[in-house]
Amino acid sequence: MTDAAAGTASGTAAFELAQVNISRLKFPLDSPELKDFVDALDPVNADAEAADGYVWRLQSEEGNATDIQVFGDDWLIVNMSVWRNTDALTAYMYRGRHREMLSRRRVGVPPRP
């Protein structure tokens, strides 16, 4: 669906797309095994915020989401963002630093059953 097809009579979008990821860690965030992942968070988040179609992301007062506790479980981390549409989210996900991080996403996160 294009933005025009999703628009209202006033020209504003009739919807936005929210995405949520919840992951269980294999190692603590401050472990050597997750150092590359943690070091990449700020640049990857900055890329998202500068991306065309980005609207909002979940973050604490410190500017990240890794310190937001999920379901009372210290081993879970959450990522949530809102985008103008699926095209904008897809373009961000599969380019640049985020794509590089996706290629290494199994480090620190156990495989799904």
UniProtKB/TrEMBL annotation:
It holds the Pfam family DUF3291. InterPro entries: Dimeric_a/b-barrel (IPR011008), DUF3291 (IPR021708). Residues 17-106 form the DUF3291 domain. It comes from the Bacteria. This is DUF3291 domain-containing protein.
